[in-house]
Amino acid sequence: MNTDFYRVKRLPPYVFAEVNRMKAQLRAEGHDVIDFGMGNPDMDTPSHIVEKLIETVQRTRTHRYSASKGIPGLRKAQAAYYERRFNVTLDPDTEVVATLGSKEGLANLAAAISAPGDVILAPNPSYPIHAFGFMIAGGTLRHIPVPTRDDGTFDGEKYIATLDRAVRHSVPKPTAIVVNFPSNPTALVCGLDFYIDLVAFARKHEIWLLSDVAYAEMYYDGHPPPSILQVPGAKDVAVEFTSLSKTYAMPGWRMGFAVGNHHLIGALTRIKSYLDYGAFTPIQVAASAALNGPQDCIGEIRQIYQDRRDTMVEAMGRAGWDIPPPPATMFAWSRVPEPFAHLGSMGFAKIMLSEADVAVSPGVGFGEYGEGFIRVALVENEQRIRQAARSVKKMMENVDDVLARYEAASAVEAAE
Asked: Is the separation of the CB atoms in 131 and 139 below 8 Å?
């Protein structure tokens, strides 16, 4: 019997598996591992959202099948959010669909619009679903390196030029372009000027734009990130994904949205109608309460992440690891420290676990252009961040011994 399944075999090995295995082993041995790996928010969901869930779940009629595209009140709440946050008007019936987090929405839209062999332009490094959602759907990926200027900021002009080369040299012509700002994993941000150029480019070449703004409310420089839908004419070519996971500390609730072009929203809605009945109705009602209710919780959550960011940058800097302060997201993106650079991101991630009991994500797990970098998630409190920094400082002060132990362990592993 053939077990070499077509879509499964197209997926590369899971890069984070080795780090996760080491983390589990250390914890089983009693180690207190400080985990900056997975971007899993650790704070409590605001109480008014939880209370609405409890109130709704006690009404047994809400236990029935729900609406795959989202209950009307939830879609109206998301449209209202776009109106007040971005000054963008959306039709809740034709331009909004609720998803089981942004990840599910991206994957199902990929299935809806991709045929085997279709070319998709995806950023690299990127959150894995941005590329592999299309790979699972049978598409062909063309990775677009995300350029930065000398000061580390995003170079939108160079990115458009790279997209232009990719379109001219792709056969067949690309079907869609994926963009993600603020970016996971790099924390890069873009301005509205970039979106204006990108929309003009997509309209000229008749290519769909898929924008992921899951971190739109997690910014630290006083400048709220824009939506691509703020550009006049963007809804002709673009759809945008958002999530409540980070904005309202609701990761396990699995609630997100796709909004924008009615053809793309219609395609996603139709695919979902065959696959699910939507999120549990009480969750959708509580999500409506999040969007319609008091919004001061967003600023409070943002401040917690900013305080953690500042602590991480300061403490790790004193430990000997220079981490640039991210302007947005819940992640920091930093080069592997020079003494360990020759080992690559995976080697350094293993050393951080074995020597400091600190888990981080190797940049190579986000694509080939992520090699040499480390993603650090701001999911531990400030006390734990300082504790981790003390362990890292000790590791950095004994770098020769640390490298000798790593090389010896690698030799034993290779011999086995």
From this structure: no
Question: Rounded to the nearest 5°, which phi and psi values hold at 43?
Answer: -90, 165
CA 135 vs CA 102, 118, 140: distances in Å: 17, 10, 6
**Rama region for 260: left / alpha / beta (φ>0; ψ in -120 to 50; rest):** left
Whole-angstrom distance, CA of residue 138 vs CA of residue 119: 10
Query: In 3-state terms, what secondary structure has residue 4?
Result: coil
356, 362, 363, 367: CA torsion to nearest 10 = 180
Structural domains of the chain ordered from first start = 6-44+297-415 (3.90.1150.10), 47-292 (3.40.640.10)
Of 212, 291, 294, 284, the closest CA to residue 253 belongs to 284
**Per DSSP, which regions of 194-254 are E strands?**
208-212, 238-243
- Residue 365 CA to residue 128 CA, distance in Å, equals 8
Model pLDDT, residue 340: 95
Angle at 46 between CA 92 and CA 248, to 5 degrees: 50
The predicted structure's pLDDT at residue 16:
80
415: confidence class by pLDDT, cuts 50, 70, 90: low
Take residue 318 and report the two structure tokens written for it.
Answer: 């004193």
pTM (2 d.p.): 0.93
Residues pairing with 34 in the sheet: 358
What's residue 408's pLDDT?
Answer: 80
* pLDDT score at 414: 67
300-309 tens-digit pLDDT: 999 999 999 9
Handedness of CA 87, 219, 78, 235 (dihedral sign): positive
Decide: helix, strand or coil at residue 148.
strand
Tokens of 188: 């890069």
Give yes or no for a contact between 268 and 108, defined as CB atoms under 8 angstroms apart: yes
The arithmetic mean of pLDDT across residues 176-188, rounded, is: 97
Placement of tokens 């994993």 in the chain: 185
Pairing of strands 176-180, 208-212: parallel
**Which tens digits make up the pLDDT trace of 346-370?**
999 999 999 999 999 999 999 999 9
C-alpha–C-alpha distance, residues 8 and 127, integer Å = 18
